[in-house]
């Protein structure tokens, strides 16, 4: 098997177990049908499931048993999904489509979409606390880190900064601050939680935090680059929409070549940190290139 | 000191320590200013703080040190506050005023209000996990129970059922189901969490659960009664607004006398359960009458 085939299979498998677990958990909930359907709708609307896959790879770098991360990986993906539902609302980005399908508030209604988001967020904490394979100490670390990463010090801060920045020009530093909060904190949580469950040491976790920091930035630079050079079929939206919407992006601030150069710099930094993290990090290395070169 | 004075002082003190802790926690957060201000706005907009006071009384029934519940009490009040912010949104109840002040989305904007609610909900879990006075076992129980009580199996279920019921007539049984989810689960959490932190036994917790069940219902019947017989000055809204809005209420289904009778029945059941819970429950007894007779 080639390395590429192996990675593809690894990603596909991670996606599958994540989706199966998410769907099962939600289907088995005894809750009002309208609420269940709207939660399931957004969870089953697809997605790359990169955060759960990253968490599995991070755990696998330190432990042969990756399956222990599953409920935490699902909790993280549910929080990511809730953030998309609320982001799409008329009062926020006012999007009618996501991944080619009507957004939650279009398929249901605004009130239901708000509540489905609230429910996914809240349920994610329940999922972790009820996992019998985790110790109390692990549960406290995981729920504590997840609430920090997704709350007012993390993702929600990023969303409010992002809204604020829409109406003005920002510096590269400001742009990166927004990204670090809005998407970086959850990427960091994915890496940190996986390694923690895999029993990485405190020193290893510090290097992984640095790795995840650069990985989050790579993810964002590539997003911006794809909006310039991508295939509209693959990225699922017209090319050039960022420029049209005058969004602050890496190519806008650095030019396309500058953005690509920046990305390569971050890839090197990420791999350097990973080497210091002393682990069997082959899948994390491969995923770094995958994040950097992805076409959608 | 008379019993009434003593209870008044007890309530006032519980309110004060809750409000002081909430404000301090939020003021000390290093987060974007707009987000902080909108979270503080709703937290400082007043409120009876009945849930935190109830949690303190429940802890005090089993332990001489009530102060250990404080972060959990604050977390619960933050979740209650988030639910009001989201409830008031245009897509939900579309209310412009709460407690005589502009609702969060009126004072700020809709996007900020949605995010302030999300942030309060998420931060409440962080608060509990970071309390150095609680053991890991306690934190897991508390975050797990709180997410259950406030998520899709609890409060959020109640909100979606309530929305659904607005457009039709419901039976008394259906009405009580909605209330048990929408407000009852958080009342139950308040009682259960307090007693748990106070080291009540599993058997005692079962009786307290029954007590809290009736207490939640008492709270709701009295709310409905006040809408008929209350003083508009004290309840902060015109009398008869439920009837005008054709809301499903106890007086509507049972008549005013029937509703009052129902309430007294619940008070007896609550006190009976409390007596079985084997504790120094004098404040819980007093609070039961207080809930039942409150004028606002």
Automatic annotation (TrEMBL), chains A, B:
<dbReference type="InterPro" id="IPR008949">
    <property type="entry name" value="Isoprenoid_synthase_dom_sf"/>
</dbReference>
<keyword id="KW-0479">Metal-binding</keyword>
<dbReference type="InterPro" id="IPR053378">
    <property type="entry name" value="Prenyl_diphosphate_synthase"/>
</dbReference>
<dbReference type="InterPro" id="IPR000092">
    <property type="entry name" value="Polyprenyl_synt"/>
</dbReference>
<dbReference type="Pfam" id="PF00348">
    <property type="entry name" value="polyprenyl_synt"/>
</dbReference>
<protein>
    <submittedName>
        <fullName>(2E,6E)-farnesyl diphosphate synthase</fullName>
    </submittedName>
</protein>
<keyword id="KW-0460">Magnesium</keyword>
<keyword id="KW-0808">Transferase</keyword>
<comment type="similarity">
    <text>Belongs to the FPP/GGPP synthase family.</text>
</comment>
<keyword id="KW-0414">Isoprene biosynthesis</keyword>
<dbReference type="InterPro" id="IPR033749">
    <property type="entry name" value="Polyprenyl_synt_CS"/>
</dbReference>
């Amino acid at each position: 098997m080639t390395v590429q085939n192996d990675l593809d299979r690894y990603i596909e498998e991670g996606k599958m177990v994540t989706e199966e677990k998410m769907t099962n958990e939600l289907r088995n909930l005894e809750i009002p049908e309208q609420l269940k359907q709207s939660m399931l709708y957004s969870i089953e609307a697809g997605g790359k499931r990169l955060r759960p896959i990253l968490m599995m790879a991070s755990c696998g770098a330190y432990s042969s048993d990756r399956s222990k991360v599953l409920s935490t990986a699902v909790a993280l993906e549910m929080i990511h999904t809730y953030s998309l539902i609320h982001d799409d609302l008329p009062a926020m980005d006012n999007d009618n489509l996501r991944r080619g399908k009507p957004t939650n508030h279009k398929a249901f209604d605004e009130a239901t979409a708000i509540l489905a988001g609230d429910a996914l967020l809240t349920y994610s904490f329940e999922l972790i606390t009820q996992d019998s394979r985790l110790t109390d100490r692990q549960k406290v670390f995981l729920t504590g880190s997840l609430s920090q990463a997704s709350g007012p010090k993390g993702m929600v801060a990023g969303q409010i900064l992002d809204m604020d920045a829409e109406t003005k020009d920002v510096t590269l530093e400001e742009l990166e601050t927004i990204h670090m909060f809005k998407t970086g904190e959850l990427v960091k949580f994915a890496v940190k939680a996986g390694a923690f469950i895999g029993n990485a040491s405190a020193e290893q976790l510090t290097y992984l935090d640095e790795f995840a920091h650069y990985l989050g930035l790579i993810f964002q630079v590539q997003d911006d680059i794809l909006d310039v050079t991508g295939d509209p079929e693959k990225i699922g939206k017209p090319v050039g929409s960022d420029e049209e919407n005058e969004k602050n992006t890496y190519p806008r601030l650095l030019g396309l070549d500058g953005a690509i150069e920046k990305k390569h710099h971050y890839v090197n930094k990420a791999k350097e940190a990973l080497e210091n993290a002393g682990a069997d990090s082959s899948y994390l290395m491969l995923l770094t290139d995958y994040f950097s070169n992805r076409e959608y």
